[in-house]
Amino acid sequence: MKKLIFGLGLLMLLNPLQAADGEAALYKVEGGTKVDSQTMKGFRTWRAAACDRCHGANQEGMVGPSLIASLKVLSKDDFVKTVRDGRLEKGMLSFNTNPMVMENMNQLYAYLKGRSDGAITQARVEEIK
Ligand code: HEC
């Protein structure tokens, strides 16, 4: 009995720190608009690379598709490949030679995934202090 209670306690302790798939959470959000420093870097990269020119200020799509919708189905590998290599014949640029994008690919993905998941409720975010 003691062992069981201990086991349950341990489970409850570990659970909130982990995403459903057992990996560390991609991003941290408070109140829909405050994010951890890494996700903040993702937002800054999004702005600096001007992805909004084609995907819209709120990621909901313009010339390019809605990334809110895309990231619900696109795998992380496909995301990285698309942003790195582009789809030149279809109007998506290659960001291969953009150091900020290449260095912050995971952060950019985390930010956009947070938007797509609905956890980040508006495009503009602030850093959790
Ligand atoms: C010049 C316009 C333009 C810019 C700037 C641009 N994109 Fe795109 N993007 C597109 C178009 C057009 C597509 C659709 C390509 C296709 O039809 O397969 C696309 C597709 C994508 C896809 C794949 C979506 C899917 O459902 O397959 C991702 C992810 C993406 N863009 C992310 C980004 C990110 C991140 C940035 C900034 C670093 C960015 N894009 C900047 C035009 C742009």
TrEMBL record:
It comes from the Bacteria. Keywords: Heme, Iron, Metal-binding, Signal. The keyword Signal applies. Residues 37-116 form the Cytochrome c domain. Residues 1-19 form the signal peptide. Gene3D superfamilies: Cytochrome c-like domain. One of its GO terms (molecular function) is heme binding. InterPro entries: Cyt_c-like_dom (IPR009056), Cyt_c-like_dom_sf (IPR036909). This is Cytochrome c553. It comes from Roseateles oligotrophus. The lineage of its organism: Bacteria, Pseudomonadati, Pseudomonadota, Betaproteobacteria, Burkholderiales.
